[in-house]
Specification:
The chain has about 290 residues and is mainly α. The protein contains 11 helices and 2 strands. About 75% of the residues lie in helices and about 0% in strands. Helix 1 packs antiparallel against helix 11. The longest helix has about 35 residues.
């Protein structure tokens, strides 16, 4: 797993920091709303990230192979559930219209914003989506036929779990009057995205049945992209929806001079960062092909 995840894992911290800086510097209103009203699930998600990264590193680099390896593995598994669960809860809360900027109680300002059936169902859906992607990407990296069968089986299970939890999202949205159904089918773009995802799912299952792993990664990424487009297109560019009907738009960022400076910094920085990332991936690939290195 370390060999497979290594190049992505080493770069994850950089992407997290860049994303937070972009949000803080370029879109301070979004950053403030999320970090204040959703600070509890954010902290829990960050704790999961820390536990996951720590367990992953200790599990791989520990010079002594003993029972602690089992402890590290369990921490990694549990943290790998906690992290996407609260990531999904945060995403569901942002678009659910439950955040109340006028709340004057602890429950109203910091609990009711994110703790409901809809956000929990979105969190569960995110867990299965992440498990699905992980299983798909591990199929092509398996060293033995036994490993391939294992990850094919897990891919099927995670895909079925994502389908069921996605249905729970729609049911919870209907019960709580959140217009998810309208977002998905209320316009041509979203409907086309959902239909494309469903059609690609048929092809995906056919490839699984035929034990073909070459196109699975592309189809999995395509399905996730189509789901994201379908959900977000209807209310774009409004990214944070509040209980009082107001929202925060991505078209209303901070100071224009700051945005320009941030854009140039990202453009210039990418000239240095991206080649290093590509070399990192290449070096891990070479190590896989040539174990002596």
């Amino acid at each position: 797993m370390y060999r497979i995840m290594g190049p992505i894992w080493e770069a994850n911290h950089m992407w997290l920091i860049i994303s937070i800086v972009i949000l803080f510097v370029g879109f301070p209103a979004v950053y403030t709303a999320v970090s204040v009203h959703l600070h509890i699930p954010l902290v829990l998600m960050l704790m999961g990230i820390i536990a996951r990264g720590t367990a992953f590193s200790f599990r791989n680099y520990d010079a002594v192979k003993d029972e602690m390896q089992i402890v590290y593995s369990r921490i990694f598994v549990y943290a790998s559930i906690i992290t996407p669960l609260f990531l999904g809860i945060i995403a569901g809360s942002i678009v659910s219209g439950k955040i109340d900027p006028a709340a004057n109680t602890f429950l109203g300002a910091y609990i009711n914003d994110w703790l409901d059936w809809f956000t929990l169902s979105v969190g569960l859906f995110t867990v299965f989506i992440c498990g699905f992607l992980a299983s798909v990407y591990l199929i092509g990296e398996s060293d033995t036929e036994e490993q391939r069968r294992l990850f094919f089986k897990r891919t099927r299970n995670m895909n079925a779990g994502a389908f069921v939890s996605g249905a729970l999202v729609l049911i919870a949205a209907r019960l709580e009057n959140i217009p998810v159904y309208h977002w998905l089918f209320g316009n041509l773009v979203s409907a086309a995205a959902i239909i494309s995802a469903l059609l690609s799912l048929v092809v995906f299952w056919f490839l699984i049945y035929k034990r073909k792993s070459g196109l699975l990664r592309i189809l999995a990424a395509f399905q996730l992209t189509m789901i994201f487009v379908a959900v977000s297109y209807s209310h774009y560019p409004n990214i944070v929806l509040f209980k009082n009907g107001s929202s925060i738009s991505l078209n209303e960022p901070g100071d224009n001079h700051t945005i320009n400076a941030l854009g140039w910094a990202l453009l210039i920085g990418s000239i240095f960062i991206l080649p290093a990332v590509f070399y990192l991936i290449y070096s891990f690939t070479e190590r896989k092909i040539n174990p002596r290195h």
